[in-house]
Amino acid sequence: MSNTPTLETERLILRKFTENDLEALYQIYRDPDVNRFLPWFPLQSMDEARKFFEDRYASLYAEPQAYAYAICLKRGNRPIGYVKVDMAEPHDFGYGLRAEFWHQGIATEAGRAVTAQVKRDGLPYITATHDVNNPRSGGVMRQIGMKYQYSYEEQWQPKDLLVTFRLYQLNLDGNGSRVYQKYWNESAVHFVEEEVSAHVFPAL
Length: 204
Fold this sequence. Notes:
Keywords: Transferase. GO terms for molecular function: acyltransferase activity, transferring groups other than amino-acyl groups. It is built from 7 helices and 9 strands; from the N terminus they run ββαααβββαβαββαβα. The chain is of the alpha+beta class. It has one domain (about 5-200): Gcn5-related N-acetyltransferase (GNAT) (Aminopeptidase). Strands 1-2-3-4-5 form a 5-stranded antiparallel β-sheet, sandwiched between helices. A 4-stranded antiparallel β-sheet has the order 6-8-7-9. α1 (about 20-30) crosses α3. It is globular, with a radius of gyration of 16 Å.
């Protein structure tokens, strides 16, 4: 088992956040544009950033196995975003990136590296969801090999918004027929968008 082992790609270092990264973490999580489609409100202070780090990162790093990465450019090794995979089902893959680094393939590069790591470590599959109003996020999911499965509505918390999500999945253990069904089963409104499978989205 491993807990956020450091990874390197052509342009990036992927590593754990530390207390020395609080200012960088604050800059990532305070931006309304970066956090518009994420399940929390933008941070308002460094005190909130410290608590966020303790609750969402330090606590995970104390576990036997976790994948909660800071995305850093090799020049400077300063966090500009994050990428994570949850250990609990449905093994949710998620990421966020400061706006000035969008449209450079950074999220895709980081996502591919982390996906390869969790596959090496034996995770059977990963899933990811995105708001239909944020289709570029689906581009990242496709670029790392995930496939669209279905769409569903959810009253999304804590922002209390009615959102239509698209679910993507990548099976890592050879079980190509597996589809995570919980969201489909729990949502009164669920459907398959045939046109999504044929559309190519640009990567972030």
